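As described in the Methods, two query proteins were run sequentially through the folding procedure within a single session, without resetting any intermediate state between them. The first query and its resulting structure tokens are shown here.
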Amino acid sequence: MNIKHLHKRLLDHLSTGIIVFDQQLRLNYINLAAESLLAISGRQFQGAWIGDIFLGAEQDIADISNARDSHHSFTKRRAELHLPQGRTIVVDYTITPLSDMEDAHILMEVQALNYAERISKEEALVSTHETTRELVRGLAHEIKNPLGGIRGAAQLLAGELPDSELTDYTNVIIEEADRLHKLVDRLVGSRKLPELRPINIHEVLERVRNLIEAEVQDKDIHIERNYDPSIPEVMADPEQLIQAVLNIVRNAMQALESPNVRHSTGTIGLTTRVLRNVTIGSTFHRLAARVEVIDNGPGIPEELIGSIFYPMISGRAEGTGLGLSIAHSIINQHGGMIECNSKPGHTRFAIFIPVADQKTIKHKTTD
């Protein structure tokens, strides 16, 4: 491998966007992370002037030109860049003139703010979620011990009662003790680690869709699909992943049955896309699958949006608040993450799962 090709591979593995312009501010090189961030093709825009990539950015271009002429670097925070497709992104970028090279160039490093903030938010959520679950496990242990004593005492009492009709009361005690025991088990969640293997993410979604369609067949709720068939296989435990997605989709279905819905037709959208150069938590992945569950329900109350993945948090009076907490734990165990955005009429849950490495797939299939 020659040194030029090695440098390109190294740059393409970075999660930070790297763009190189020549002295005339024409595109000379762009790595995969920058292509993904700007949603452009480096081959298509090769040689394009900077003003054709960042539209209406006269002040930014003037600052970059001054840096080129003065050979001084600078960093700009929270810059709004308007892209050719009509999109606008907010980024931090650093300009470094490479004047010590024979053919001088300008290096631009770009980091999307919303992406960095999302990663920081997810890391904080995972940390808090783990702390909460440890507290819940300790509390569950303290609850289970007296529950077992209450159930055992009720069984002994039932055997000593002279009137068989009185056993109806002891049966109520036993049944309620069993119900609370099951609730505590659900609250703690499974400690079983996922058994990962290469699977097609759309097989999981179709299984979930079939289950939900059976539940909404007599309701005015429709499920729409928008799949990307090019997504490679992901490494996952199919049963656990089905449970996680089912909890999220069922949450959307229950939202559409809310009395706060202001329309007659409910819609649940299932969307998949493949993403390149994604950092999930603190791990960089060349490819990841994004699964979105979108509904046109009333939305999640603003005061709950920051805590919906914690156990026992629910916007419904009859809800246990365990479905989303369990889904978050499962996805986290798969090395993925979930994010949620909501406003009245549009709630979106996005699941990010790393795509299986081809070497891992070959190893698994030959075992």
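Immediately afterward, the second query was submitted; its sequence and tokens are:
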Amino acid sequence: MVDHLDLKMSYAQLVRLIRAEATATIQHAGIGSAGVRVHSGGFITIENGGLDVEGTATIVGLLTGSGTIDWWGPSIFRGTLNVTGNMATSGTLVVLGATTLNGDVALNNDLTLGTGRILAGPVRIDRAGSYGGRVYSSSILVLEAGNAVLINNDTDIRGILLTDGLDVDGPKNFRIAHPTKPGFWLRHGSTESPVSGTEYKGRLKLDAAGEGIVELPPYFEALNKPDGRTVQLTAIGRPFPVGADDVADGQVKVYGDPNREVFWHVMAERIGADFLLEEEIPAEATDDGRVGPWAAA
């Protein structure tokens, strides 16, 4: 027999009493300001019911669960939030700490950037003062689409634009700062051709025999087709007869009056840069020829 709380009982009776108290069901119980504390790694299990908290629930350790968190009010997470299952929020979600999402994320509404940024490796999306939004990359930025990339308004590209090919619908012009009128742009247009052409220009002085050699760049033969090459010559000063051989081995031999000078202009066609000269407009294009998902707008 043991003495416990002035009650005489056996050890087995004491064990049964402790077990009964440990598994006792609490119904309609009120807990005072002292709260409830679970010691020594214990836990609280809620079966076939729910947890209703009208005040503040503070969790210092780890909160784990295998079900769905369905939250209707504001949520404030000040630490690290790791979500591997489903989380549905219909109110305001404020995350002050680091957030890791390992599953798929479906965005059914707008994502608005304040003072923060979206980082994806070397690519950064942020707000850039008076420029509004900005997509920045410390490396190469690739825009890839199955059909086309549409830029409706003016685009200010101050660095280098790298493309495998540039298909432009409309006039091709560019602007630079005016060299003699401060506060003005100077706009030039691009000439157009049915081929991808290359051009080389220079000035040559003929020797005492009235001959001279134009040396084209070392890469000329590897870059340009053997056919379609032309040479134009202009006498400098008083006109005199001039002529030239065909371009061969990256050179052009020029003939004219001894010791005179000529302007020369060689044109050719790039290898591997052919394009379809005539192309049927797809059925989904708009009346002005633009193609893509904006055609129905």
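The mean pLDDT is 80. We note this only descriptively and draw no conclusion about the first query from it.
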